[in-house]
Amino acid sequence: MALKCPKVQFTVVDIDSKRIAAWNSDHLPVYEAGLDDIVRARRGINLIFSTEIDNAIYDADIILIAINTPSMEKDNRLGAAADLRGIEQCMRRIAKVARHYKIIVEKSTVPCRTGDLISNILRQNSNPGVNFDVLSNPEFLSEGSAIRDLLYPDRVIIGGLDGTEGAQDVLKSIYSRWVPDDRIITMGLWSSELAKLASNALLAQRVSSINSISAVCEAVGADINEVSRGCGLDARIGSQFLQASVGFGGACFHKDIQSLIWLSESLGLHDVAEYWDQVLKMNESQMSRFVQRVINEVEGGLKDIRIAVLGFAFKSGTGDARNTPASHICNQLLRQGASLFIYDPKVPDEQIRNNLTVELDNRKPQFHICHDAYNAIAGSQVIVILTAWDEFQAVDWSEAHSQMIQPAYIFDGHRLLDASYLKQLGFHYASVGTHSKGRI
Ligand SMILES: NC(=O)c1ccc[n+]([C@@H]2O[C@H](COP(=O)([O-])OP(=O)(O)OC[C@H]3O[C@@H](n4cnc5c(N)ncnc54)[C@H](O)[C@@H]3O)[C@@H](O)[C@H]2O)c1
């Protein structure tokens, strides 16, 4: 936004002063291709990172709320409510500080009717004569391609209640500076909130659907890539998001489906809740099935076997390891007594460590964080590929094979590598969605 609207002043504030310090440094707190250049170009000009929250609230005409909305602890029901305490706290602060009309924009992903909660808090706590309009403008960017998604969005949704048309036009006028008008759509507030939850649920459902078919492929000797192609060429289905893998992860899919399940349950829509719960169950089963395959196929079991883990981020293009399948898989491998040598080009060591929480009787889990793929591979007997980083395709696999304990195994969770070449080199190569003996 700061890049595309050079005459608009953007102030980013956060209660976490370390994060703001990082945004003001050469080491930004998130990795995203192209982000550094944009921040460097606009920082200090029309893009300020600050901890002076009250000043920013006081001065602003529009406030975008992008606070985290994690899942609350589960009780015995299906799903989990989104934790909106951060948003509530923030609304109280805005109400207290504001002295003139402001547009409040929900950018965070929130359950349907959060707009009501926000409006009520603002109305009940505001200074006399100060009014607010509340809009929903969910963020659809995907980590790993965030800058491209922001510059060329498929759509921008602006939701508002009747009477907020003026505010919607103001927000629209910001996006119009780089997004074609026919891609900016307005709708009701509740529809906009639900469209975001539903989009994530549908995307995750597609991953679980193709992963469920990958299980069938492995059992019958079909090839998931061939099946995906055969399905994706149907224009009604389409080819995107049909790649089988170890499962979905990240900060959003899981929590947003949990939130949708919770919402459905609260509305008494039990069948709807059960339906979406199955998408999560399929995801967990895909990760466990991958581990089980490693256990079944490595002769002699995994105890004291050295495994090179290539990739820890929940997807390539990001350093984010929140809810990553790698965490689930590595913890299960550690439980089997394997020792792990983990390499990811972007995930900070601390994030990897924080994810490996398995507790073992009488021994410490054995894992080491490596800073290149060859360090992880040399001396290992097994390789598991858990993130589809391009650089793993560029590994010299002949050299890698010669440095491994034999027989050497590769379990490819993303079908990233050339199966026939690796088999020729002497690897036992298994990938998601194919039988280990290849196509039958
Ligand atoms: N990460 C994504 O790719 C993505 C994409 C679309 C939508 N979203 C949604 O955007 C929201 C934020 O996601 P995220 O991944 O950026 O979360 P995050 O945890 O990385 O960042 C949230 C930030 O909000 C700050 N914060 C919390 N309470 C605050 C308060 N009261 N005042 C000021 N700052 C406060 C935190 O310190 C943190 O830095 C979530 O609702 C998420 O579902 C995220």
Automatic annotation (TrEMBL):
UniProt-listed GO biological process terms: glycosaminoglycan biosynthetic process; polysaccharide biosynthetic process; UDP-glucuronate biosynthetic process
GO molecular function, one term: UDP-glucose 6-dehydrogenase activity
InterPro entries: 6-PGluconate_DH-like_C_sf (IPR008927), NAD(P)-bd_dom_sf (IPR036291), UDP-Glc/GDP-Man (IPR017476), UDP-Glc/GDP-Man_DH_C (IPR014027), UDP-Glc/GDP-Man_DH_C_sf (IPR036220), UDP-Glc/GDP-Man_DH_dimer (IPR014026), UDP-Glc/GDP-Man_DH_N (IPR001732), UDPglc_DH_bac (IPR028357)
Domain UDP-glucose/GDP-mannose dehydrogenase C-terminal per the UniProt entry, residue ranges: 308-419
Pathway listed: Nucleotide-sugar biosynthesis; UDP-alpha-D-glucuronate biosynthesis; UDP-alpha-D-glucuronate from UDP-alpha-D-glucose: step 1/1
Binding site for substrate: F140, L141, S142, E143, K196, F241, L242, Q243, A244, S245, G249, K315
EC annotation from Swiss-Prot or TrEMBL: 1.1.1.22
Active site, renumbered: C252 (nucleophile)
This protein's UniProt keywords: NAD, Oxidoreductase
Reactions mediated catalytically: UDP-alpha-D-glucose + 2 NAD(+) + H2O = UDP-alpha-D-glucuronate + 2 NADH + 3 H(+)
Matching Pfam families: UDPG_MGDP_dh, UDPG_MGDP_dh_C, UDPG_MGDP_dh_N
SMART domains: UDPG_MGDP_dh_C
NCBIfam families from the UniProt entry: NDP-sugDHase
Full protein name: UDP-glucose 6-dehydrogenase
Natural source organism: Coemansia reversa (strain ATCC 12441 / NRRL 1564)
